[in-house]
Amino acid sequence: AGDTIFVMIVSSTSVWLFAVLPVYIWIVHSVPHGSAKLIFFIVTIYSSVSAALLYWRYQQETWRNALIMK
User: Fold this and answer.
1) What is the pTM of this model?
2) CA geometry: angle at 54 spanning 49 and 42, to 5°?
3) From CA 7, how far away is CA 50, in angstroms rounded?
4) Separation between Cα atoms, residue 54 and residue 60, nearest integer Å
5) Residue 38, burial from CB neighbour count under 10 angstroms (0-12, 13-18, 19+)
6) What pLDDT score was predicted for residue 1?
């Protein structure tokens, strides 16, 4: 509940690395063959990395000690 900074950083960084940047490269280089497979691969990697980082942070349990409000 009190660990929103980490979630925000992971979410925004992973979107730029695994969604915006590959799509930009894909559009600029216009890969004609295997485009659907490439997009599926990028989305799978994006989802897996985001889920793994957030699960890792959850397992650390540092969010339990976060000060929500005084």
Assistant:
1) 0.61
2) 20
3) 9
4) 10
5) middle
6) 53
Q: What is the DSSP string of 12-62?
A: HHHHIIIIIHHHHHHHHHT--SSHHHHHHHHHHHHHHHHHHHHHHHHHHTG
Q: Mean pLDDT in each 10-residue stretch from start to end of the chain (70 residues)? A: 77 82 73 68 83 87 69
Among 52, 49, 42, smallest CA distance to 13 is for 49
Looking at residue 58, what is its pLDDT? Answer: 85
**Structure tokens of 70?**
């005084």
Q: Which residues contact 19 (CB under 8 A, 6 or more apart)?
A: 42, 43, 46
Cβ distance 56 to 6 under 8 Å?
no
- In 3D space, the residue among 36, 13, 16 whose CA is nearest the CA of residue 24 turns out to be 16
- Residue 33 carries which DSSP code? S
